[in-house]
């Protein structure tokens, strides 16, 4: 079991997100108020703090939200989760992993600064199946695929 380290949003796509501390995850939509939310398979993005720490080790001054992730997690190996895995976030939210990593079509600000970016390799995307609040400190738990 892991925990939520940051809840991040941005008003526009293609920019770093700001940690707002708490938010509402809406079924079939994503994180309320975020530019990436909508009725598609990449409603919410997750990146592990462990991945951000790797970039810090390269000398970057980065933190939660800097890779445009919505939820920064800790204590859970996100990239090992197969598509279809269900996640319980906090007490009420149910999410399903829909994509591991992504193709980076244009080099982001982080890539230009460091020559590397972890989000395309280590970020994951989920669809929200059941709505509810999310906040820093909430648990995030892996539920075996098909076992709700």
TrEMBL record:
Using the record's annotation, list all stretches that form the MOSC domain.
18-143
InterPro entries noted in UniProt: MoCF_Sase_C, MOSC_domain, Pyrv_Knase-like_insert_dom_sf
What's an example of a GO molecular-function annotation for this chain?
Answer: pyridoxal phosphate binding
**Pfam family name, one:** MOSC
**Highest taxon listed in the record's lineage:** Bacteria
What's the protein name? MOSC domain protein
Protein species of origin: Neomoorella stamsii
């Amino acid at each position: 079991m892991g925990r939520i380290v940051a809840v991040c949003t941005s008003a526009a796509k293609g920019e770093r997100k700001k940690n707002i501390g708490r938010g509402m995850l809406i079924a079939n939509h994503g994180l309320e108020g975020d530019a990436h939310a909508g009725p598609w398979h990449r409603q919410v993005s997750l990146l592990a703090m462990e991945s951000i720490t790797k970039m810090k080790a390269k000398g970057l001054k980065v933190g939660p939200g800097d890779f445009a992730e919505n939820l920064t997690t800790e204590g859970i190996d996100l990239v090992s989760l197969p598509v279809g895995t269900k996640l319980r976030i906090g007490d009420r939210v149910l999410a399903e992993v829909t994509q591991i990593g992504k193709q980076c079509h244009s080099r982001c600000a982080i890539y230009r600064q460091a020559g590397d970016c972890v989000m395309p390799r280590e970020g994951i995307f989920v669809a929200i199946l059941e709505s509810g609040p999310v906040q820093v400190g909430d648990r995030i738990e892996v539920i075996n695929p098909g076992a709700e």
